[in-house]
Backbone:
């Protein structure tokens, strides 16, 4: 259904669509060149703005291929304060490399990870630094056409089907859905357990109107415990019904986490900041005030791994420090099709040759 906002922004969306269409035309017909790396490259991206779960899916791919390959991860490092190529170290902060790369580096400290807004330069730098790298994962790279990946995985949020969306700024689409023709694999993310076979079929048909790529479904599996930011014992999720929880988020789409914790906690309060928000001292004061106002004997703050990447390196009031926990999440491919996805990727990038 068209809203007044949608109608108002349609002319701007048409201009944006034209600009993106011209750019894609120039690449499609080789007026602009794309770089092909000498090692296999898997690009993970989306066709909408934010919130599809790119970082957990990058982590999923690392877990799939790390045993047999030397993986490097390359991100642009969105919202970092640095420029150019930066090789991540274990002590690198979110300010230096971005919150999502910091999250990945925390979970996989031995992984080769770098950030560079120029992906071609970043790939060449990575290969020069570590010649054993034989698989590169590009984060948020579907629209980055200066590099031609061997496998392009596009993520689409289950709650935001293409048929009900529109081009920016009228909607959330970065480009027209017909550009899914460039996708090697499409994954519908954050699929709820209640999703029926008929609903999945409708979504597959929606996508296959634009693309012949195989379609998979994935869901988020939350960790069995919330983990303290600093020290102390973890709290099993099945004991959160003893606690009032303040959910602190600076992510694009917190709805799934809100639903999960609403069902698990005694009571849930929320405090939401914009995606990639860099927390400041004034934010800590606001969080403390909100936490103190919660009328509960047992209360904690729960946040995400992505937010923890930004919280670790700022000053946190003592009254909060012992009460902040985070809830890790991992990706699971639905319907037992994880091995099928793995084989599809292997085939596309010829990783077994």
Residues:
């Amino acid at each position: 259904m068209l809203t007044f906002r949608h109608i108002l922004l349609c002319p701007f969306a048409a201009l944006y669509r034209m600009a993106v269409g011209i750019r894609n035309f120039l690449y499609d017909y080789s007026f602009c060149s794309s770089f092909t790396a000498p090692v296999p490259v898997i690009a993970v991206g989306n066709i909408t703005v934010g919130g599809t779960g790119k970082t957990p899916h990058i982590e999923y791919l690392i877990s799939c291929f790390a045993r047999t390959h030397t993986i490097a991860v390359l991100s642009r490092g969105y919202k970092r304060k640095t420029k150019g190529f930066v090789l991540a170290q274990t002590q690198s902060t979110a300010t230096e490399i971005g919150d999502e790369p910091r999250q990945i580096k925390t979970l996989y400290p031995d992984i080769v990870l770098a950030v560079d807004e120029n992906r071609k330069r970043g790939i060449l730098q990575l290969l020069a630094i570590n010649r054993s790298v034989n698989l590169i994962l590009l984060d948020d790279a579907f629209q980055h056409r200066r590099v031609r990946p061997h496998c392009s995985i596009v993520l689409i949020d289950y709650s935001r089907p293409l048929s009900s969306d529109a081009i920016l700024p009228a909607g959330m689409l970065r480009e027209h859905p017909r550009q899914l023709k460039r996708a090697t694999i499409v994954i519908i993310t954050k699929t709820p357990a209640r999703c029926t076979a008929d609903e999945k079929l409708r979504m597959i048909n929606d996508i296959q109107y634009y693309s012949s790529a195989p379609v998979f479904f994935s869901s988020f599996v939350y960790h069995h415990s919330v983990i303290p930011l600093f020290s102390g014992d973890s709290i099993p999720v099945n004991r959160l019904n003893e606690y009032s929880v303040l959910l602190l988020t600076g992510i694009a789409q917190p709805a799934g986490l809100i639903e999960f914790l609403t069902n698990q906690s005694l009571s849930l309060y929320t405090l939401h900041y914009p995606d990639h928000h860099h927390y400041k001292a004034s934010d800590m004061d606001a969080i403390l005030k909100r936490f103190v106002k919660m009328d509960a004997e047992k209360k904690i703050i729960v946040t995400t791994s992505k937010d923890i990447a930004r919280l670790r390196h700022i000053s946190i009031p003592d009254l909060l420090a012992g009460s902040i926990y985070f809830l890790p999440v991992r990706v699971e491919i639905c319907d037992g099709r994880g091995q099928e996805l793995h084989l599809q990727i292997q085939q596309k990038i010829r990783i077994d040759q």
